[in-house]
Write a structure and sequence with these properties.
It contains twelve helices and eight strands. It is of the alpha/beta class and 327 residues long.
């Protein structure tokens, strides 16, 4: 069998209600030069049998399982699939998401034309329980322009995993770090890749991100507050300081200041509504995110002018001054 152009990595756990649509969207791709590595992560429903049926129909689809047959999590499942991948490029697709028929063509053409680009990503649209994520979701960028994505990523994860294509040669042997909170493991990988080369954004919707009550996002974030999630991401950035270059540390400090500023904005918003407990929690969160006094002071400088005036007892400005990052 010849080496495929693209390896599609799909971790699946209790996905019997969605995995058919996911695999059908892979089969419907205009580009047919792919392999799909689907990991049944210890599902106790019909997920494995459904994947096995698809694999029997099309040899490009391969069912993988962990050696002990257990549930090891999304990072270990993606790493297992990547250890068997042979494609030039790697596409990630969650077991409850689906692709537009030209998703692989859109992304692979970008990497074919720009050999310097490490990762390309595009927009995604949510569907299902859209009260949580209405309409278009992450995917912001500068269309068609290769960028140093680190500055953007330290502030927020703008990349949807199911709308990316990566050069396999740029991935480490075990690229997804274990024991990280869900929705942080992919962000950490993007941070690592951003140090290896530019990213390029395609301003097209190529993926559909399913939101459902029993979905991985809901299950993994249940019981975790927004502050806890913010602190977990800040902890990752602080950990990076140890091995960062001088220029990277400057970018990291800017990202931490941006995040601490966001915590301060949340604190002030709660304060205006007399929610004193929440206001204090977010203020303490800002301090913990910043850690360094200089970073905290920079976060204060980033606050919108109307928030600074409100906290000083002054009337708001008319019109309000928009929130801009320092240059």
């Amino acid at each position: 069998m010849s080496t495929p152009q693209i390896s599609v990595v799909i971790p699946a756990y209790r996905a019997e209600s969605t995995i058919r649509a996911t695999l059908e969207s892979v089969l419907a791709q205009g580009i047919q030069d792919w392999e799909a590595l689907v990991v049944d992560d210890g599902s106790d429903d019909g997920t494995g049998e459904i994947i096995r049926t698809f694999a029997a129909r099309d040899p490009r689809i391969r069912l993988l399982m962990h050696p002990d047959g257990g549930n090891r999590g999304v990072s270990a499942s993606r790493n297992l699939a990547l250890s068997r991948a042979t494609g030039k490029y790697v596409a990630f697709l969650d077991a409850d998401d689906v692709w537009r028929p030209d998703a692989l063509a859109v992304c692979s053409s970008t990497l074919d034309q720009r050999e310097d680009v490490v990762l390309t990503w595009a927009r995604a649209r949510s569907f299902g329980n859209t009260e949580r994520h209405p309409g278009p979701i992450r995917g912001a960028g500068h269309p068609g322009i290769p960028v140093d994505a680190l500055t953007q990523l330290v502030r927020a994860n703008v990349i949807v995993t199911s709308a990316t294509l990566v050069r396999r040669a740029s991935l480490a042997e075990q690229p997804f770090a274990p024991n990280l909170p869900f929705q942080i493991e992919d962000w950490v990988l993007w941070l690592d890749l951003a140090k290896k080369g530019p990213f390029l954004f395609r301003d097209e919707e190529i993926a559909f991100y399913r939101v459902r009550p029993e979905g991985a996002t809901v299950l993994a974030t249940a019981g975790h507050s927004a502050i806890e999630f913010e602190l977990a991401q800040a902890e990752v950035l602080h950990h990076w300081f140890a091995g960062a270059s001088r220029s990277e540390k400057r970018i990291l400090r800017g990202g931490l200041a941006y995040r601490a500023c966001d915590c301060l904005r949340q604190s002030l918003s709660h304060l205006r509504h007399a929610r004193l407990g929440a206001a204090l929690d977010w203020f303490e969160g800002a301090i913990r995110v910043a850690r360094r006094p200089a970073v905290f002071l920079r976060a204060i400088k980033l606050l919108p002018e109307e928030h600074r005036r409100a906290s000083s007892g002054l009337p708001p400005l008319e019109p309000p001054v928009p929130w801009r990052m320092e240059k």
